[in-house]
């Protein structure tokens, strides 16, 4: 059981040419009332001032690695390898933790549930829309949508079996969450906003991404992969309903 200061958060931030946003991102983590164990910025060899801005913080809890990677999930996997904390969280370099008590509230949940392995909440988009994941389970992940990585905290042990599959350029987090929920991971929803989520990122704009069609096919494959083919019609019906709803409203 992890309690109090036995809980060590590793905040993993993939970054690439993030000079315009990385400072606000880091500040949102550093202002937390519960101390952060480490902040790992995995930079994809930016050619702007991203690394210089990170280094200007001169904070020993911030560690930056700058090298070429194979996309965001490769960067996230590198962060997992480097992480020394027992709770991991992934924040985009253009995202921010919602307020200074996010980590404190997550700690309260962990302390109240000795065996919890995943804690997740909601996010607010840059347009002010709240994405809610109330009591999400495996079937919600299949039929609805992925819990975005800005909304979810993982115990380190969850990654002992597998990491993110870098064959997926946009959907690897959905694949990973389906995998652990299919395993029956002990998860807990918390009714609070975790992060401000910038929808201009790749995962936020996956339908406009140049690899959208290929990844849409990947999403369908994932539904079948996790032995949920009986729910495939519901997946398509739900997608159609959401599309019609957007056009009407």
Automatic annotation (TrEMBL):
Q: Which Gene3D superfamilies match?
A: Spore Coat Polysaccharide Biosynthesis Protein SpsA, Chain A (3.90.550.10)
Species:
Mucilaginibacter limnophilus
Protein name (Swiss-Prot/TrEMBL): Glycosyltransferase
**What InterPro entries does the database record attribute to this sequence?**
Glyco_trans_2-like, Nucleotide-diphossugar_trans
Q: Which UniProt keywords apply?
A: Transferase
Q: Where is the Glycosyltransferase 2-like domain?
A: 10-168
Q: GO molecular function: any one?
A: hexosyltransferase activity
Q: Which domain of life is it from?
A: Bacteria
């Amino acid at each position: 059981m992890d309690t109090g200061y036995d809980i060590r958060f590793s905040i993993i931030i993939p970054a690439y040419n993030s000079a315009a946003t990385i400072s606000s991102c880091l500040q949102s983590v550093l202002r937390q009332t519960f101390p952060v164990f480490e902040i790992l910025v995995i930079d994809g060899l930016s050619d702007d001032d991203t690394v210089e801005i990170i280094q200007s913080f001169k904070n020993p809890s911030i560690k930056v690695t700058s090298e070429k990677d194979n996309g965001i999930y490769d960067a996230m996997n590198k962060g997992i390898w480097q992480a020394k904390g027992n709770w991991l969280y992934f924040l985009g370099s253009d995202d921010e933790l919602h307020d200074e008590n996010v980590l404190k509230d997550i700690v309260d949940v962990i302390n109240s549930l000795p065996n919890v392995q995943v804690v997740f909440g909601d996010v607010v988009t840059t347009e002010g829309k709240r994405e809610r994941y109330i009591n999400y389970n495996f079937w919600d992940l299949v039929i609805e949508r992925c819990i975005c990585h800005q909304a979810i905290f993982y115990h380190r042990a969850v990654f002992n079996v597998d990491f993110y599959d870098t064959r997926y350029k946009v959907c690897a987090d959905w694949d990973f969450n389906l995998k652990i929920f299919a395993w029956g991971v002990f998860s807990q929803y918390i009714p609070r906003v975790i992060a401000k989520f910038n929808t201009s990122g790749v995962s936020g704009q996956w339908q406009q991404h140049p690899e959208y069609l290929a990844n849409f096919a990947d999403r369908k494959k994932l539904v079948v992969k996790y032995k949920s083919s009986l729910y495939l019609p519901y997946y398509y019906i739900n997608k159609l309903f959401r599309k019609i709803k957007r056009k009407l409203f």
